[in-house]
């Protein structure tokens, strides 16, 4: 009976290690995905703004008509930029909250009534 209990306890220990590694790799994948999302949104917003600025430099006063001729309405482009910046802010907030909840060291504080005067 002792050998069976030892085998079961060893198996349970291996299962715990397995799930700990899976959780660790899941967290790493989550962080990489969030950071990649923020980087992609930053890059996309940069490209949109750079495109508008290049049209302003290239066509001067009539840049809006040329931009709308090739890329659609300017208000639609601005709406896309606004949505992307909002998503980027949301991604940063979620990533920051998750990091805070995951890696925050809990400090034990003494309650006021525990302190003896």
Radius of gyration using CA atoms only: 27 Å
Q: Biggest sheet, in brief?
A: none
- Which quaternary structure do these chains form? single chain
Mean pLDDT: 83
How many beta-strand runs? 0
Strand content: under 5%
Shape label: elongated
For the termini, the CA-CA separation is 57 Å
Low-confidence stretches: none
Describe this structure in words.
The protein has helices at residues 2-59, 63-71, 74-103. By secondary structure, the protein is mainly α. α1 (2-59) crosses α2 and α1 (2-59) packs antiparallel against α3 (74-103). The longest helix has 58 residues, at 2-59. The chain is elongated, with a radius of gyration of 27 Å.
């Amino acid at each position: 009976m002792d050998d069976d209990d030892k085998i079961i306890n060893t198996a349970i220990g291996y299962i715990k290690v397995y799930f700990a590694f899976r959780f660790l790799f899941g967290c790493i994948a989550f962080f990489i995905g969030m950071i990649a999302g923020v980087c992609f949104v930053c890059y996309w917003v940069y490209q949109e703004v750079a495109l508008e600025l290049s049209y302003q430099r290239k066509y001067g006063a009539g840049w809006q008509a040329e931009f709308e001729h090739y890329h659609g309405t300017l208000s639609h482009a601005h709406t896309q930029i606004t949505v992307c910046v909002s998503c980027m802010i949301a991604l940063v907030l979620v990533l920051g909250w998750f990091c805070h909840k995951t890696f925050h060291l809990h400090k034990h504080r003494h309650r006021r009534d525990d302190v003896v005067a």
